[in-house]
From TrEMBL:
Signal peptide: none annotated. This is Cytochrome b6. Residues 21-224 form the Cytochrome b/b6 N-terminal region profile domain. Pfam families: Cytochrom_B_N_2. PANTHER family: CYTOCHROME B. Gene3D superfamilies: Cytochrome Bc1 Complex, Chain C. The keyword Zinc-finger does not apply. GO terms for biological process: respiratory electron transport chain. The chain crosses the membrane at residues 46-72, 130-150, 193-214, 248-272, 326-346, 358-378, 390-414, 435-456, 468-489. GO terms for molecular function: electron transfer activity; oxidoreductase activity. Keywords: Membrane, Transmembrane, Transmembrane helix. It comes from the Archaea.
Length: 499
């Protein structure tokens, strides 16, 4: 009898040990049959997942945006926003994380775009993916602008007024004004702006579906090194590893990491004393436009519009007169965007190394450093201050000369592209890394338990709201890391496989 029980327990343990949860789930949901392409081992690095990170931020925006929609009233824009901040449970974190989710999404979209430039991912066969991506980026900037204009605080009203002023100078200005900001009156304006905010977010979702569909068709851009730095660089679909569950697990890890940071950063800012955070980074709305405090706040746009906002201040002859600001926005905003959009058709060579595409590489480096960074910092430091042409020339031409000289030097000393294979880990390296990952995983599980216990303690007290945001965010980041480590331990790389 005793022997029998022992045998049965032994069998049950063996069965539990050999149970494969992912295979069990797959048999029921047929997830491995989804038309998604897997990635080789060397691609499990953040650099290959910048698009996934941007998408994760977008999903956060949709969820938090729909929750905000339950409380937001276009007829009482500012007071309903105040209500969310002061009366809705976790409303502060909800609104602040929607704002910082937008910041994260836009920052990650820029990183994604420029990374794709440097690896040549706009070349055949990915031209359409690139074009869709740039259009999507413009739609995201538009969504963020309309979202910001919904709040009804002094910054948001100033931002909308600046945009209205610009439109007035555009061809068909009054028609465009009516389309984007309604026929007049506050409620009509906020209702129209809300409609645009959601319509553009839906457009982003549609473009994202197409963009992802093409990415699946063409596979992730492999390392150009493996293709002699020549396009077309495509994974061999027949040889491509399975998507399920390796890629699924890494995607989940990315999602939790991004969501965690979107919660942690504004929650920490919410804990700092009011007034210690520069207005540009404030996680909460500013004062009402009719308050006395509003008078001392200069009109600042969202940080990712600061560069174009500064260009409007340039006192160049072309930018003067009634339609001057509109021309400035066209030159400073629309032309760079058009350049990015048309890049695959302007650079038709098959070269994938950035130094083999010098003209465009110099333009892209100029756009990153001068157009995006220097002009934006300038805009933050001197909001609305007119800039004489001589200062424009100084601030523009000095860094331009440095970039040209630096790139000329790099090019002169460059010995040409070095094709090769990806370095594959040895069996021993994999074993050591797995052992190390197992230790860290055990430690992180303990950390996760502590975070959950702390959360349990502070959760009933609403006054700890930012602390709850930090704890939930940290819990998500740690959970993402646990998933990533588990993925490595359960599905380690195969030694000696490079494509
Ligand atoms: C279905 C998707 C979305 C919905 C339903 C939605 C809804 C909303 C609502 C109702 C507000 C007003 C909050 C208030 O003032 O009380 C808002 C603000 C905002 N939204 Fe969205 N949103 C969505 C997606 C996005 C996306 C994709 C972005 C940009 C990447 C974005 C960026 C913003 C920004 C920057 C604000 C201002 C937040 C602040 O200043 O505190 N939203 N959104």
């Amino acid at each position: 009898m005793e022997v029998n029980i022992r045998k049965k327990v032994g069998q049950a343990i063996d069965k539990a040990k050999s149970f494969d949860f992912w295979a069990w789930l797959d048999e029921r949901a047929k997830l491995s049959e989804l038309p998604l392409v897997g990635t080789p081992d060397y691609m499990f690095k953040l650099g290959y997942w910048t698009g996934g990170m941007t998408a994760a931020a977008f999903f956060w925006q949709v969820i938090s945006g729909l929750l905000l929609l339950m409380y937001y009233e276009p007829g009482n824009a500012y007071s309903s926003t105040e209500y969310i901040v002061n009366n809705v449970a976790f409303g502060k974190i909800l609104l602040a994380s929607h704002l910082y989710g937008a910041y994260a999404m836009i920052f990650l979209a820029f990183v994604h775009l420029f990374r794709n430039y440097f690896v040549g991912a706009y070349k055949k066969p990915r031209e359409l993916q690139w074009v869709l991506g740039v259009i999507m980026g413009a739609a995201v900037l538009g969504t963020a602008f309309f979202g910001y204009s919904l709040v009804g605080d002094t910054l948001s009203v100033d931002g909308a007024d600046v945009a209205k002023g610009l439109l007035q100078g555009a061809p068909l200005g009054s028609l465009l004004l009516n389309i984007f900001f309604g026929p007049g009156g506050e409620t009509a304006q906020f209702t129209r702006v809300l409609a645009w905010h959601i319509t553009l977010a839906a457009l982003v979702a549609l473009l994202f579906a197409l963009h992802l569909g093409l990415a699946e068709q063409n596979g992730v851009m492999p390392s150009p090194k493996l293709f002699n730095y020549k396009s077309p660089a495509e994974l061999d679909r027949k040889e491509a590893p399975k998507w399920w569950p390796n890629n699924f697990l890494y995607t989940a890890a990315i999602l939790f990491w991004v969501w965690g940071f979107i919660l942690i950063i504004p929650s920490i800012l919410l804990m700092l004393p009011q007034g210690s955070i520069p207005i540009l980074l404030s996680p909460l709305p500013g004062p009402s436009p009719t308050s006395a405090a509003a008078a001392s706040i200069p009109p600042y746009p969202l940080w990712f519009f600061l560069n174009v906002y500064k260009i409007v201040d340039f006192q160049l002859p072309l930018f003067q007169g009634g339609s001057g600001p509109f021309i400035a926005v066209t030159v400073g905003g629309i032309i760079p965007l058009l350049y990015l959009l048309l890049l695959p058709f302007l650079d038709r060579s098959d070269k994938l190394h950035p130094l083999d595409r010098m003209v465009h590489t110099v333009i892209i480096i100029w756009l990153i450093t001068v157009w995006l960074i220097i002009y934006a910092i300038w805009g933050a430091l001197t909001p609305g201050l007119p800039i004489p042409p001589i200062r424009v020339a100084e601030v523009t031409l000095i860094p331009t000369a440095i970039i040209l000289a630096g790139m000329a030097f790099v090019y002169a000393t460059w010995k040409g592209p070095k094709p090769g294979n990806m370095k594959q880990p040895t069996l021993r390296e994999i074993a050591v890394k797995r052992a190390y990952a197992t230790l860290v995983l055990a430690f992180l599980v303990a950390v996760e338990v502590i975070i959950t216990a702390a959360l349990w303690k502070v959760l009933p007290d609403g006054s700890f709201e930012p602390m709850i945001g930090v704890l939930v965010g940290a819990g998500l980041v740690v959970f993402g890391e646990i998933i990533a480590l588990y993925r490595y331990i359960a599905y380690p790389p195969k030694p000696g496989r490079s494509k």
